[in-house]
Amino acid sequence: MSAFSKAVGCLIVGCATTLPMAAGPAPVTASPVVDASTNLACGWSPRIGAGTLNFAYPDAFANYWVTFVPAIPGTTLTIRGSFPHARYMSFTAYTRLGHVSGALNDQLITADPGGSNPFLDGGDRDAGGREYTIRVVVGERPPQPEPNTLYTGDSTGLVPVVYRVYRPDAELDATGGAGLPRLTVDSASGSRLDLSECGATDAAFDPHVTYPPGRLRYPSLVQVPKAPDWRSVAGGGYFPNPDNKYLATLLDPGRIAVVRGRMPTFAPTYQGRATMQSGEVRYWSLCTNNPISTAVTACVVDDELDVDAAGFYTVVVSSSSDRPVGCGIGWLPTDGGSDLLIMRNLLPDSDFVHSVQAADPADPRATMGPYYPEVRYESRDEIDSWGCPSE
């Protein structure tokens, strides 16, 4: 097995024994040691997501790829890519504990000279000149960081860098039609290595699939309240997306839950809109997850949920055998013990005071107002009696 493959394995399983649910976030305890024999001929990993390596609470509508930078002073990774047709993209570097050491989302990336960034508010999403160049520098972040640059901080071993693409436009592949960025490693001694993709071609991607819990184990979220209460969490220690913040709650096993709240406005990109428009959030989703394996089972996403005249969505969460027959509502399965609900808010507008990011962690209901996801338990007969608006 190459050093790259070993590093992927350590990132996924933590290179540690499985911890019980009551334990807190555990370190990735066996980061590979970089030496003269390390094989860095590979670039991006194959696509990671709910349908591939389902762990650490992924979003079913997001795609992830990882590469590794040797934490040797003077080493630089150069990333050259093209902005995808998608809702969101970012690059994030992590410590071996799974915490963020540096991050650049799409809005913070400057296009190459003569080009334009289609993710800026009002940007032309179909514009040419979509190329960008990013550097990942091994070392501490200076007081005045360079543009388009990530710093790894005081890291050892191999530093994971994750590339994310959320909600690619309709009929495009997981990369949003842009392919994967090209990678070049420059060492302190002046040597240069262009990394190959090493099997990073896209695999079949269907965000609507119900995924089994899986057998991978990762330290679980702790102190999550029982519904109807939610806890605000940031995802620390789980290789989180720093632009997301989450609400989490545990449902009573075997019961049918109804989740209702106001849908924040969002950037409507999926159908190929020509202009980037801002919203109260960039992206919103609600997912059922298995709290033991940390796998996602299924998600519903903002642009696929029906809302009523007041802008409220309704999602029923139940086992497949209790799936409701009504229409105009979303549905999430709890099969395989997936009783953990996670709601995401990604990149809220600075003026949106009801986001999860702006919420009081001790009492998110108080500050989120109608956007707080209220949970109640209902019978199957009651839900089926709702019927359809046209009836």
Keywords:
single chain, 391 residues, five-stranded antiparallel β-sheet, mainly beta, 3 helices, disordered N terminus, globular, 18 strands, five-stranded mixed β-sheet
Tell me what you see in this structure.
With 391 residues, this protein is mainly β. 5% of the residues lie in helices and 29% in strands. It is built from 3 helices and 18 strands. The strands form 4 sheets. A 5-stranded mixed β-sheet has the order 6-5-2-8-9, with no helix packed on it. The termini are far apart. 46% of the residues are buried. The N terminus is likely disordered.
Record the strand order, biggest sheet: 6-5-2-8-9
| Count of individual beta strands | 18
- Calculate the mean pLDDT score and round it: 84
The backbone outline, from C-alpha atoms, is globular
Low-confidence stretches: 1-39
> Count of helices?
3
Instruction: Give the helices and strands as they follow along the chain.
Output: HEEEEEEEEEEEEEEEEEHEH
* Most strands sheet: 5 strands, mixed
Instruction: Round the Cα radius of gyration to an integer and report it.
Output: 21 Å
Short description:
By secondary structure, this protein is mainly beta.
What is this structure's SSE topology?
Elements (H helix, E strand, L loop, with lengths): L2 H11 L48 E9 L5 E7 L3 E9 L5 E6 L25 E7 L11 E3 L6 E11 L13 E5 L5 E4 L35 E3 L10 E7 L5 E7 L20 E7 L6 E6 L10 E7 L11 E4 L6 E7 L17 H5 L5 E5 L1 H5 L7
Parallel strand pairs: 5-6, 15-16
Antiparallel strand pairs: 1-7, 2-5, 2-8, 3-4, 3-7, 8-9, 10-11, 11-17, 12-15, 12-18, 13-14, 13-17
